[in-house]
Amino acid sequence: MRYVSTRGAAPTLDFRGATLAGLASDGGLYLPDTWPTLSRAAIAGLAGLSYAETAARVMAPFVGDSLAEGELLALCETAYGRFSHAAVTPLVQLDHDQWLLELFHGPTLAFKDVALQLLGLLFERFLTGTDQRLTIIGATSGDTGSAAIDAVAGREGIDIFMLHPEGRVSDVQRRQMTTVLSPNVHNIAIRGDFDTAQGIVKAMFNDADFSTRFQLSAVNSINWARLMAQVVYYFYAAVRLGGPDRAIAFSVPTGNFGDVFAGHVAARMGLPIAKLIVATNVNDIIARALATGDYARRAVEQTPTPSMDIQVSSNFERLLFDLGARDGHAIAAQMHGFEGSGAMRLTNAQREGAAALFASDRVDRDDMTIAMRWAHDQAGQVIDPHTGIALAAARRADLDAPIVTLATAHSAKFGDTVERATGMRPALPRRVGDLFDREERCDTVDATFAAVSDYVAARASPRG
Ligand SMILES: Cc1ncc(COP(=O)(O)O)c(C=O)c1O
Ligand SMILES: N[C@@H](CCOP(=O)(O)O)C(=O)O
After folding, report:
1. Residue list, ligand 1 pocket, CB within 6 Å
2. pLDDT of the chain along its 464 residues, tens only?
3. Domain contains 384
């Protein structure tokens, strides 16, 4: 399997190369050059497999010969062995046709663990026997940061620098990052929002000298391996609800468009999906783009769903590329236009292609609260606010199919909002330990490329 950049000008790479590179050198994102497909029989054959076995089957075509036979399964067994539920991503029934897919049973209580536990092992595997070091640069609105730090803390040959917007993540999210005191972990609170942090990270990758000198790599969903691992749970859930013989819909709380793009990949691979509901909070750039064709940036509003307070959704570029005849030069022009003016228009092919699979819904705070209350009072489930956004969209969607809402975080990560909605305060699971008693380590830095790159350069190990 070869990987191509959405902007058409970077060299094609194999899976190992794309995983270590993160972002393509032309500023684009890597995608497989063709979509592998699973036959209906192969999909049906996933039904009796464990999560790790399903993962190895679904991901094998993407990995190709970057790993030896049997290695992928062994890595999946190690990664998913750290989850606290035997099913890894269990399904819970809410009512007749509404389901929750619980993605928060990993070490840091959010769906990011599903991909990042594996990515940490892939980095280690690909560095073993080489003299390469990696400097991981990431931006987080709360959950990617802790999951990535957990996945690489203490690993040989890796330094991680994680930017989060100061004061805009929950206390649990912040502490899950800042209380990890391993010497290879560097937490940076920036005086700005998530989009600014993500922009600085991309600028560091696009600085060829800096990127080469420190051998930058990514843990955000700009890294293809992140998305690949997230494709698995669409298959895992669908076959347990009757797939591939009936099509299932998924409602996905959306920010950076990574999780829902993984659903698009599952559909491309042959999984019958009735609809992917893109559920946003009031930071609704994607919902507007899908409804009107105008992808136009607005100021970020702070909400009780901080992980979705995003206006520049990195992975939307992957969708536009895939629906736009995979014309890298056209996407580069479209994206440069957006980067310059903050707005762009989708082509007819992109709009029509998106409408065939995606529906979108913007959910405000009141409707999110009603959904959280309904889950608690009527279905006995305490859900986090991000899940509440997607459940609200799922409950008002007019679809003739079972709808699976992706439950992306544990409710205890957002205790205040959950308590306001349901009247009960969820307890932190024992596996996160004494989070509120631990020492924190974090530096605050101005939200500029110069300030952050100086900070990193002073601490990272340059290539030997
Ligand atoms: C809890 C939670 N839900 C939803 C999202 C949005 O997912 P994505 O950025 O893949 O669209 C995030 C952040 O990524 C998150 O942390
Ligand atoms: N909501 C995310 C933002 C980064 O998204 P990613 O999926 O691209 O890593 C977070 O929790 O950090």
Report:
1. 110, 142-143, 221, 253-259, 307-308, 386, 408-409
2. 999 999 999 999 999 999 999 999 999 999 999 999 999 999 999 999 999 999 999 999 999 999 998 999 999 999 999 999 999 999 999 999 999 999 999 999 999 999 999 999 999 999 999 988 999 999 999 999 999 999 999 998 999 999 999 999 999 999 999 999 999 999 999 999 999 999 999 999 999 999 999 999 999 999 999 999 999 999 999 999 999 999 999 999 999 999 999 999 999 999 999 999 999 999 999 999 999 999 999 999 999 999 999 999 999 999 999 998 999 999 999 999 999 999 999 999 999 999 999 999 999 999 999 999 999 999 999 999 999 999 999 999 999 999 999 999 999 999 999 999 999 999 999 888 799 999 999 999 999 999 999 999 999 988 76
3. yes
Using CA atoms, how far residue 113 sits from 120, 222, 318, 355, in Å, is: 10, 16, 22, 30
Q: Calculate how far, in angstroms, residue 70's C-alpha sits from the geometric centre of ligand 2.
A: 30
Pocket test for ligand 2, best of 103, 221, 259 (most atoms within 8 A of CB): 221
ipTM reported for the complex, 2 dp: 0.99
Give the span between the Cα atoms of 308 and 300, in whole angstroms. Answer: 10
- The residues assigned a catalytic role are 112
Integer angstrom CA distances of residue 402 from 94, 250, 280, 305, 357: 11, 8, 20, 25, 15
- Of ligand 1's listed atoms, the one at least distance from the Cα of 310 is 9
CATH of the domain at 403: 3.40.50.1100
Domain of residue 277 covers 91-110+224-422
Point out the ligand 1 atom lying closest to the alpha carbon of residue 255: 11
Cα of 143 vs centre of ligand 1, distance in Å, is 8
Looking from the CA of residue 258, the nearest atom of ligand 1 is 10
Which ligand is closest in space to the CA of residue 253? Answer: 1
244: cis peptide before it, omega within 30°? Answer: yes
Q: Per the domain annotation, does 147 fall within a domain?
A: no
pTM over 0.95: yes
Does 305 reside within a domain?
yes
Distance CA 200, CA 217 (A): 14
Count up the domains in the chain and report the number. Answer: 1
Dihedral sign from CA coordinates of 370, 371, 373, 377: positive
Pocket test for ligand 2, best of 108, 109, 140 (most atoms within 8 A of CB): 140
Q: Is 402 touching ligand 2 by the criterion CB < 6 Å?
A: no
Residues 340, 365 contacting (CB under 8 angstroms): no
258 CA → ligand 2 middle, Å: 8
- Please, is 378 exposed, middle or buried when counting C-beta atoms within 10 Å of its C-beta (0-12, 13-18, 19+)? exposed
**Is there a domain that residue 391 lies in?**
yes
